[in-house]
Specification:
- The chain is of the alpha/beta class.
- The strands form six sheets. A twelve-stranded mixed beta sheet has the order 8-11-14-17-20-25-28-31-34-37-39-40.
Length: 343
């Protein structure tokens, strides 16, 4: 990356204050930036760094008014955070992209490979798999028999996609994630357990991103479904026959038990646990480390384990902190009452 501040301003639809010809070579955090870097100011808590940063340029809002002289060139935009996100995307697109099929990869003769595909060394593409145009499959990825991968999707190193699964277009699946492993199905059989065959699959929609080392289990029958626009963090467990609605986001280490249905546009914090066979409505927000054991209606905001309404939880948390003191007061009142009765 080597562009002028003016070119970046043109890209972001902003205006330049300072030297429009200053050369930008990389992006950096405002507190760590040095010469040649561009950074941004979106959170007022970081305003003091504007006067001390070594960055050559700073993306700021239209309303920003410096209290002291600023050495860096300013690029004014309507929304600094969004503008910097666009700049990150521009930077990412400028990185050379891998193409072609590397030696030591295996592609079954019956597999169908699209145009402009990258397949890294030691990747394995099984029989009748269908790989769309512009797909990137990094080293040590396994794509099972009859799997379909939509155009523009990226499978990072070590991803495993079991047979019959479907992945949509423009998805990103990060390293170590497993798609389509068996659901946790066992029937009591006297003193042990008999495995229940898991004959379904996983269906992932378009524009889905799944973090590293997550597991999406295949359905016992039918499909485990991750719908369009869903964003899943690292180290999630999504059990058999779960459905996650459009544009729902779920943070790390959440576990969702079998056959639970989650609606669209939900926001679920980290380390949430959900029991099986429940329904979570649309536009629901759930705080970190909550336990969900019952159905949840649309638009609810919950926290706690078992989860309750977030407003009630916050009121209750004030009492939680004082329980020991309240207990001592109650004991003292009982003692006084008892003493009064004896007298």
């Amino acid at each position: 990356m080597k562009v002028t501040a003016q070119k970046i301003a043109d890209l972001l639809g902003g205006t330049v204050e300072g030297n429009p010809d200053v050369m930008i070579t990389h992006l950096a955090k405002i507190e760590e930036a040095g010469e040649g870097a561009i950074t941004f100011l979106a959170n007022p808590r970081y305003t003091h760094h504007v006067y001390t940063t070594g960055a050559s340029a700073i993306v700021v809002g239209q309303s920003f008014e410096p209290d002291h002289p600023v050495k860096a060139t300013l690029i004014r935009v309507d929304d600094p955070y969004r503008a910097f996100s666009e700049l990150l995307e521009y930077y990412n697109e400028s990185i050379p992209k891998k193409t072609g099929i590397e030696p030591h990869s295996f592609i079954h003769p019956s597999a169908k490979i699209g145009k402009n595909v990258y397949i890294g060394a030691f990747a394995y593409i099984d029989e009748k798999a269908v790989i769309g145009d512009n797909v990137k499959i990094f080293p040590h990825v396994y794509v099972g028999a009859d799997v379909q991968v939509g155009e523009g999707t990226i499978l990072y190193p070590g991803v495993k996609v079991y047979h019959d699964c479907r992945i949509g277009r423009n998805c990103i699946i990060h390293a170590g994630t497993v798609i389509g492993s068996d659901g946790f199905g066992f029937a009591p059989n006297g003193s042990d357990y008999k495995k229940i065959p898991q004959i379904g699959n996983v269906v992932i929609g378009d524009n889905v991103e799944i973090g590293a080392n997550s597991t999406i289990d295949r359905a016992t029958m039918g499909s485990t479904i991750i719908r369009d626009g869903v964003k899943l963090d690292n180290q999630l467990q999504v059990a058999h026959n779960v459905e996650i609605g459009e544009n729902t986001v779920i943070a790390a280490q959440t576990g969702i038990s079998g056959s639970t249905k989650i609606g669209r546009n939900c926001q679920i914090g980290g380390q949430v646990g959900m029991t099986g066979h429940i329904r979570v409505g649309n536009n629901v927000r759930i705080g970190a480390q909550s336990g969900i054991i019952n159905d949840v209606e649309d638009n609810k905001v919950l926290i706690g384990s078992p989860a309750i309404d977030a407003v009630n939880f916050r009121k209750s948390s004030v009492l939680f902190k004082n329980l020991a003191e309240l207990y001592d007061e109650i004991k003292e009142l009982k003692r006084q009452i008892s003493k009064g009765n004896k007298s």
